[in-house]
Design brief:
Layout: E1 4-8, H1 13-24, E2 28-35, H2 40-56, E3 60-64, H3 66-82, H4 89-109, E4 113-115, E5 121-124, E6 130-133, H5 151-155, E7 157-158, H6 166-176, H7 197-205, E8 213-216, E9 222-226, E10 249-254, E11 259-263, E12 269-280, E13 290-294, E14 302-310, E15 313-323, E16 330-335, E17 338-345
Parallel strand pairs: 1-2, 1-4, 2-3, 4-7, 8-11
Antiparallel strand pairs: 5-6, 8-9, 10-11, 12-15, 12-17, 13-14, 13-16, 14-15, 16-17
Helix pairs in contact: 1-2, 1-6, 3-4
Amino acid sequence: MKEKVIVGLSGGVDSSVTAYLLKEQGYDVTGVNVHMFDHPAADKSAADAEKIARYLNIPFITRDLSQVFEKAVVQYFIESYQKGLTPNPCVMCNHTVKWLGLLNSCKDMGAVLLATGHYAGIGIQPNGRYAVEKAVSAAKDQSYVLYRLTQEQLKNTIMPLGNYEKEQIRAIAEKAGIPVAQKPDSQEICFIPDNDYAGFIDRKTGGTLQQEGNYVTADGKVLGRHKGIIHYTIGQRKGLNLAMGHPVFVTGIRPDTGEVVIGSNEDVFDTKVRFGDAAFMGCTDFAQERLWGRIRYGHKGAWCQVTYLGEGIYEAEFEEPVRAATPGQSIVLYKGNAIAGGGYICKKE
């Protein structure tokens, strides 16, 4: 029997196959479902996870992290919109909630390793540091949302799915008879299953962030009224309800005045992107190296060089303009196939 491993069992096909593959390889596998919020969808996922554990004949436990999740993720999500930022709750959740709960489960149960169903890998770099590496499947690669994991978290983690395509995982699940083999992937923010994040924030804040304000040009000319800053993000075109005679886009959000700045498509392109709260992973500094930078989960990336400006702020200068570098989102920097580090994008104004 190999080492004891805890598998984060979400109730989906990816984590299920992760548990199955590790058991087939001889690991002593225990499934852990992390409860983060109250909702019928979460209850259904937990029930699926328990059903999968029974099918695989592995021990199963649930860890309640709802209080930590509320503070670390939900409040961060709401406060980001209050500041005119567009948050990425998955990035925050991974290193402050999921890994916290799962690694604590490892300690409690005497396990050596934590395994997750992410499409990514973990490797030791030439400098001896651990780093998340891109998955073989570019379409499913989840390395972007893992860039804030620490060295301590990484050294105790394995990600068996990094070398697989999604179709292969479903085929393995089908052949093994795993009950959720054809369960659809989740596409929305997990704690907002109906994807109505504005309605969610409205309920949480009693409507305080739904206040109307002015659409303005960069120099302050009023163009019309909007329905509240939480409905908008940089680069947005749809849903503006502005009859300008030509396409217009959100180029800025000013929470202090409640204004949404409107401009042309050209106005949302930049070659220089500033970021702070840097997290280093495969590197200990960015040292003017030519790195591959991604400014959102769905961004394929572009080459850039990073300069430290002082006071915790860095600037990535891209070799080609990037569209809609959105404050509050993350820039993730890669050296080769591995994450060098990253940080949170700052406002331009």
